[in-house]
Amino acid sequence: MLLQELPKSMRPREKLLSMGGAVLTDAELLAVMLGTGLPGQNVLQLAQNLLDSFQNLAGLLQASPAVLQATKGLGGSARRAQLLAVLELAKRVLTQQMRKRDVMSDPENVRHYLQLQLSAHPHEVFAVMFLDNQHGFLGFKEMFSGTLNQTSVYPREVVKLALEWGAGSVILAHNHPSGNLRPSPADNHLTRTLQSALAMVDIKVLDHVIVGPGKTWSMAEQSPW
What global pTM score does this model have? Predict the structure, then answer.
């Protein structure tokens, strides 16, 4: 069925304007953003196919620009720019929310933020969230990057930046592009090394979050801390 054949009240844009975004499915919201479909495929069908290809909305938004460019229906620069703009807006909204509260009061929000920041990288990236003594958000920094299997992390640089920012605690994070979120022995060793180095200057490591496509692993929640 063509989109024009749907009753106006059932078309995504009209539903959004008359009833609000909460009633729309992910496919309908994505269809509003895309605007038009492809030959033989209306915009709702295109939106659903994209969600199926990337497993869900998070997977689509967190895909790298290169992957988006190679995806049917997203070859045009305007659509890719729209998706990347939505992702950046989501990052900024989460950052603003975290600046207003104790970060640790909403761990799920932290994990969403780290997913948006790290999951699209095709190689491993190690990053740090810096918090003040009341767990208020000071900032986020990607500090080291490496191959798919190994990242070189220098504890001295982490300590130095934490002191420069006046941090009282930190949340460590890195991505596993392979999708296997289980921490490796090297991950565990790195965590203990950084805990010891930061403890010497009275800075606490609250968690080490491993990020994969569409999911995260909290080392603090999954193992004795």
Answer: 0.73
